[in-house]
């Protein structure tokens, strides 16, 4: 739902912050008897990207539907 509430720049910043959060969590995990893994960072990043792209596509589909329905 970020597409309705935030500008494009704000959405990109949110995505970047989510990716950075995943990276920071991976570096902190060894402090809590967990393992550091580059694969987890990659999976987190892919998840953010897939979610971001899905949101953009969903928003564009809904926007077209609303425009057509209002005619």
For this entry, give a set of tags.
0% strand
Explain this structure to me?
- With 71 residues, the chain is mainly alpha-helical.
- The model has no long low-confidence stretch (mean pLDDT 86).
- The longest helix has 32 residues.
- The protein is 80% helix and 0% strand.
Helix content range = over 70%
β-strand amount? under 5%
Radius of gyration: 17 Å
Structural class: mainly alpha
- Ends distance: 24 Å
Tally of separate helices: 3
Q: List low-confidence stretches.
A: none
Q: What is the chain-wise order of helices and strands? A: HHH
Average pLDDT reading: 86
Shape: elongated
Biggest beta sheet summary: none
Q: Can you count the beta strands?
A: 0
